[in-house]
């Protein structure tokens, strides 16, 4: 089971403004839309962000960002995602005939919670710099 770290923020910015600020921060990341099922509340914006590891950096960063309309403000949930120790171990075991290098490479491609938290912090800092009413609410 993946490890997560969730935090909630309140913003006075409209959703298009939030998208614009996040777009600048996440320009080099892979961003995909989250599909919400019938049991989840309808979100104004839901995205999954993934930053691939660089040549010098091991592990990727993954986070979910969900924006909910609340009348005069938006509530933004940031969820940093990391692989658990068991997932890392299971990925590193590999199958018969698989080289050690390919097993290590597969393990290095899992999301690291520390890197994911840093990605969330970059998004939060960017939003705080634009919105004077941006604050953590949970």
Give the biggest sheet.
6 strands, antiparallel
Counting structural domains, the number is 1
* Low-pLDDT runs: 99-106
Order of strands in the sheet with most strands: 2-3-4-5-1-6
CATH secondary-structure class: Alpha Beta
Beta percentage is: 25-35%
Count of alpha and pi helical runs = 4
Radius of gyration: 17 Å
**Structural category:** alpha+beta
SSE topology string: EHEEEEHHHE
Q: Indicate the CATH topology.
A: Alpha-D-Glucose-1,6-Bisphosphate, Chain A, domain 4
Could you estimate the helical fraction of the residues in percent? 25-40%
What tags apply to this protein structure?
6 strands; Alpha-D-Glucose-1,6-Bisphosphate, Chain A, domain 4; 29% strand; six-stranded antiparallel β-sheet; 138 residues
If you had to describe this structure to a student in words, what would you say it looks like?
This protein has 138 residues and is of the alpha+beta class. It has a single domain, classed as Alpha-D-Glucose-1,6-Bisphosphate, Chain A, domain 4, CATH 3.30.530. Helices cover 34% and strands 29% of the residues. The protein has helices at 15-25, 85-93, 100-108, 113-130; strands spanning 3-11, 30-33, 45-51, 61-69, 74-82, 135-136. Helix 2 packs antiparallel against helix 3 (100-108). The longest helix has 18 residues, at 113-130. The protein starts with a strand and ends with a strand.
